[in-house]
Amino acid sequence: MRCDRRVFLAGLIGLGACSGTPPEVAQLPEFRGFLSIDPVRYSIEQGADILTNPRRHTGQPWETARLIQALEFLAVELPNGPRWNVVLPMGQLAVPAARPEWRQAFGIAADARAQEVIDSLTELRRAFAARSPAAAVAALRSPLFTPGGQDTLNRFGEPPALPRTTRAMLDARMELAANNNERRSW
């Protein structure tokens, strides 16, 4: 495929214009339409908090689903969002690098698109809100989740330790805090 200079430059800044495949994008359902809340900052803060207090969410698969949604969103947004080069240089690398850990722990297909995972977990959370256990089980369908169904739901109810993911999120939170302190000192 022939690319002109503008398309080539767009590809260099991470837009993937010449590759034929657009970069993956993801949105969290809670933040659609909100301009005043930064979903990246919120996801880092909440994710780090949940990961450092995992027992608090035992028996609450909907909260574990919220965590995995945030992680999937960050794994796509951080490396593709140019503003994070300066604000989160390490988090931009560490969070996506931890993705195989949480995907393996929850049986998420390695080749799944982040938005597919987020949407499926949104169905799970809605099913719990509607008190529909059958819909919650159905939301975790194979091949997106292995084995899928009730077995996967059980994993979300008893989340395993995710040391690499926890370290990446704590580092990202420290980078955010350091960046906020730098901005305040101007």
Concise description?
With 186 residues, the chain is mainly alpha-helical. The chain contains nine helices and no strands.
Question: Could you describe the 3D structure shown?
Answer:
With 186 residues, the protein is mainly alpha-helical. Helix content is 64%, strand content 0%. The radius of gyration is 18 Å and the shape is globular. It starts with a helix and ends with a helix. The relative contact order is 0.14. The model is unreliable at 1-17 (pLDDT under 50).
List the helices and strands and how they pair.
Layout: H1 5-15, H2 39-52, H3 61-80, H4 84-87, H5 91-106, H6 114-129, H7 133-139, H8 149-157, H9 163-184
What structural class results from the helix and strand content?
mainly alpha
How much helix, percentage-wise, in residues? 55-70%
Low-confidence stretches: 1-17
SS element count, helices: 9
Percent of sequence in beta strands: under 5%
**Molecular shape:** globular
- Global mean pLDDT: 85
Order of SSEs, N→C? HHHHHHHHH
The total of beta strands comes to 0
Main sheet: strands, sense, barrel: none
Q: What is the first-to-last residue Cα distance?
A: 47 Å
- What is the alpha-carbon Rg in Å? 18 Å
Keywords for this entry:
0% strand; mainly alpha
